[in-house]
Amino acid sequence: MVNTQRAPRQPSNLQDLLRYAVEVGSRGQDGAQGDVVALNENNRGFLMNALNSMMVNVTEELATIIKTLKENTGQKESCIEALDNLSDYVCTIDYANDFVRMGGLTALQLLLEGNDDELQWRAAETIADIVQNNPFSQNFIIQTDFLSLLLALIKHSHNTTVQVKCLYAVSCLVRENKECLAEFIKKDGFSVLLHCIQSKQEKLMIKSCFLISCLSSNNNEVRSILHSMGIVEQMCMLIDIDDAFDTEINEHLLSALSSLIHESPNAQALCQQEPLNLMLKLNYIKEKHAGDEVYHKEIEYANLILKQVFDTDTVEVDEEYQDR
């Protein structure tokens, strides 16, 4: 029997290309409709040209972005668009490293040193994306003055978003890199974290506690530095049983505190100081949130600290706290 099925019309543009692919694909999947139509040389050439036209030269794109950021620091919308485009590339480590090699950090530094809060936090967020899990870019950036700039913005900026994004960038830089951590310590970075914890800004407190917890875990040098700064006592005092029940602050304070006092009798002894009321606070938290799954991590940390410091996981709550 002669096959009277007509071959698909040859594509002449991208819309035709899509239609052509769908028609040919459906024929290939349904044997009842006839044989698969093979691509001839003309169709194959059109397909390859169409695909090539959709390919982006990333190096050229990065160069354009860098030029835009350097030459348009006063044109906010142009910079935001360039940073948005850049974010599509730097999530890939190879492209992030290309951006660094091409001098892109200079463009981001101009934004960080500028006076526009939004451009500052967007630049800091981009730096975080570049250095996260990326040893090459981490080691490159630590040779510059970026860490000092980020720490200064965390401490002195009046915009919380700028502070939070800069802290995020610092965290991505130092968490898994010993050389970067050493530079962070040299630049008194822990004093900046202490400043954040004392700020009463929830996001800053949470991110600072998270970073302290990560850095102090299984690192005696970091613990020793933080112990000498009085941060153990600070955290005990900041545990809040009045206002923080609907926030994550207590959970992160307790997480960081449990890391700081782990296998450290001296730090555990500091927690036992009567004016800190740590035992009563922990048990009040446990009693207040008993049976509430939302607070299971907070209760878990409270039990851990009670066991480490007071060799117990329960105690009667004082009447003063019962009445709160």
TrEMBL record:
Name under which the protein is recorded: Hsp70-binding protein 1
Gene Ontology terms: cellular component: endoplasmic reticulum
Domain Nucleotide exchange factor Fes1: 14-98
Organism of provenance: Cacopsylla melanoneura
Keyword terms, alphabetized: Repeat
Lineage start: Eukaryota, Metazoa, Ecdysozoa, Arthropoda, Hexapoda
Domain of life: Eukaryota
The keyword Acyltransferase appears for this protein: no
Single GO MF descriptor: adenyl-nucleotide exchange factor activity
Annotated InterPro entries: ARM-like, ARM-type_fold, Hsp70_NEF-Inhibitors, Nucleotide_exch_fac_Fes1
A Pfam family reported for this protein in Swiss-Prot or TrEMBL: Fes1
